[in-house]
Every structure is written in C-alpha cells, then in structure tokens.
Amino acid sequence: MTTPIITKAVSVLRAGGLVAFPTETVYGLGGDASNPIAIQRIFTAKERPSDHPLIVHIANTRMLSHWAADIPDAAEKLAEAFWPGPLTLILKKQPHVIDKITGGQSTIGVRVPRHPMALALLEAFGGGIAAPSANRFTHISPTTAAAVREELGNKVELILEGGACEVGLESTIVDMTSGQPRILRPGMITAHAISEVLNISVLSTDVLTLIRAPGRHHLHYAPETMAELIASEKILSAVTGLTTKQLPAAVMIHSDINLPIIEGIRWIKMAPDAIHYAHDLYHMLRSLDQQAFKCILIEAVPDEEAWHAIRDRLSKATAPK
Ligand code: TXA
Ligand code: MG
What we know:
The chain has eleven helices and 15 strands. The protein is of the alpha/beta class. The termini are far apart. Magnesium ion binds near residues 132, 133 and 141.
C-alpha cells in the first residue's frame, strides 16, 4: 500500500530532489540513480569527494540485471540468501550507469534493503535509488531520523521517519567481480555466513590496502570528542589514570566488570552481545558526542567474527585525528 508520505517522496525523487529514508542498516540519503543532477546533489549535500562511489538500492533481485552485467551465479545465490537485507554486492556495471555513481569505475554496488519503508519507497518509485549514509562526510552514520536532521537538515527535501534502524551498522560490502568473493567492508553478515552459502572461502581485504574503499578515509565514522579504544584488562587503570583535564569522561563497557563510582566518570553499559551492541553503537556515540565529555574511552570488543564489523567501526572511530 502506498501511503501519502511515500507518494510525496516519490514525487520528490522524480523531480530530482533528495529523500532521506530509513534502511535496516542506517538512514540513506536517496536520489534517483538515473538522474545526474540528483546524484550531484547527493555529493554536495554530504560534502563528499566525488570519487567515492554510491550504492544503488533496488526493490528486488529482478531489477539487478538492469544495473549490473555478467552477474556470476555466486552473486545470485547471495542475493537469494540475504536480500532483502544488509548485504551490498559489487558487480560489473551496465554501460548506462552514470559515472558519478561508480566514481568512474567499471563496477557498481547494489543492494535490496529490508526496512519496510525503504521497500515501499523503492517499489512505488520503480527505479534505482542511489543512497550513501545520510551523514556529512567523515561523520557517524545516522540511525534515527532525528540524527539525519542534525546532519543534513535543510539540504534534503524530505526525511522519512522510520524509527531506529534495526541493524545499526552499514551493510557488508562484498566484491563479486573476481573468482573469489572479497569483503570490502565488514558488516553484520559475516564472511563465514557468506562462505557457508557459497561453499567457498571468502577473502577479507585489509582496510589499509583498499583503494577506493568504503570508510578508508581515516576519519570515517568518527565522533568529534577524543575517543580511545582500551583492552578490557586495562580499562580500570586507564580510567583511574585520567587527569583532571580529561574529565568528565564517558566509558563504554560491554563486559561484566564491577564499575566503581568515580567522580567525573560516566560508565555506559553496552549490550554484551554483538547484535544489540551494533544496534546501539552509533546512536550512543552520537549522543555522547553531544554532551560535554572531554574524552570517550571504549572497552575493546572480542576478537571474534560476530564482532568483526564493530571492531572495524570502533577502530575508525578512535583513529588518531
Ligand atoms: O548499509 C549501507 O550500505 C548504507 C545504507 C544507506 O544502504 N549505505 C552506505 O553508503 O553505507 P555509503 O556511501 O556511506 O557507503 C557505501 C560505500 C562507499 O564508501 C563506497 O566506497 C562503497 O560503498 N562502494 C560503492 N560502490 C562501490 C564500488 N563500485 N566499488 C567499491 N566500493 C563501492
Ligand atoms: Mg557512509
């Protein structure tokens, strides 16, 4: 069923305007993927360098061949297993795809999101919607409509309100253009889950060796407050070692540590499991960033596959500025 707000969003998109919309990962800043003016407006609104390609969102797998060419069987299998859902496939692009979307590369990123509002919008619009995360370049991705408003405010014609994003971290990006799948950006769909579907091993690219890779810019996903990652066993001594200049401090903990009351320290108890932790992470970082903390200490998360995407984002959020 098409609601009035979806009808309005479709007319904004058809006129070349921008619509921020919820997906299950993070909110996207959407424009008509076949309209070069709309695409240029996305880059301008985000203040994003033009060589960073955009993901095209589609309503269903049947539309994939309109955007991608020479689709390998393995990619079809992943689409069947994980779409709609938080997985982006990198494939060879069709010749008509405009250069601004692909950053001039011969490949395109495509996904079918699973948030009901995103699907309703895509179905009613009919075409592809190019959408990066709806934040300004280097900022934390928004996981609520209010966060989109803070990031982009009047740079977008319409912000669809779809509640807090279910997953909370950006999609897993997997490059399917060579014989072996390669993870370009870890997400909550793990390399293991992908290799189980395909029965072949999956490569992970070291973040530092990526060329135009997602989040390669070292300031990606960063809060403005100084943030530091600290091993679990060192967190208590790190906290007691803070100088008065570093207080007040927020300390994000996920393991079951006894938390002493210390003046100037606000303990933030995060969920002990990766799924809930991921759901809350960006919202928490954004909210802490808006308070007057001098620093944010973050307990390092387990070196286990379920936590891989979270480790990746935390290492970026705490990279030296
Ligand atoms: O979960 C998500 O993927 C969210 C929601 C809105 O769908 N979108 C998102 O978009 O995270 P963005 O633009 O913030 O990150 C997409 C990343 C970019 O950093 C870009 O480098 C990479 O995807 N990407 C897009 N097309 C690519 C391509 N052809 N080859 C390699 N990387 C690509
Ligand atoms: Mg982004």
